[in-house]
Write a structure and sequence with these properties.
With 162 residues, the chain is an alpha+beta fold. Helix content is 28%, strand content 35%. The longest helix is centred in the last third of the chain and has 23 residues.
């Protein structure tokens, strides 16, 4: 059975540095994600996605690659699957500034327009039909929409509202 891969692309009126900080700073990620991302963000270091007030580890993993503010790669697993490579997936965040020339070519530039970044999130090495696939299919669009809203307006979405 082949692996499943999801690719999410969004454009955010921000800078790569601000988006990087939002992904890697525990206090900021808590605000728009509802959970905190905790790590030293160096290759080989552990990272965990920690749940609200309970501080339970919801997703454990390891930092595979960290090139601030351009690229971050982490492994991703359910707590029960920590250490089981067959049940561990991978998430790659790629942050690319969109130049004014690219924006003009696509008619996106307005006078005084803010910086724009293309954020691509690839979640791959997923087991087809797994609980993880079901969770991230709904979860990533919510989280990335909340990140975009938070960075552009200062107000996150209620990510886990019914």
């Amino acid at each position: 059975m082949s692996d499943t891969e999801f690719v999410y692309v969004t454009y955010i009126a921000s800078t790569p540095e601000e988006i990087w900080k939002a992904i890697t700073d525990a206090d900021i990620s808590q605000r728009y994600w509802g959970n905190a991302n905790v790590s030293q963000w160096k290759p080989g270091s552990p990272w965990k996605h920690v749940g609200g007030a309970s501080k339970d580890t919801l997703i454990p993993g390891e930092v595979v690659e960290s090139v601030p503010p351009k690229r971050l790669v982490v492994t991703w697993a359910a707590p029960a699957d920590a250490g089981n490579k067959a049940a561990t997936s991978r998430v790659t965040f790629t942050l690319e500034p969109v130049s004014n020339d690219q924006r003009r070519a696509h008619h996106l530039v307005e006078k005084g327009a803010a910086n724009m970044v293309r954020l691509t999130v690839v979640h791959d090495r997923l087991q087809p039909g797994s609980e993880m696939v079901r969770g991230i299919t709904d979860g990533w669009p919510r989280v990335l929409s909340s990140l975009k809203s938070f960075l552009e307006t200062g107000r996150p979405l209620n990510v886990w509202a019914a």
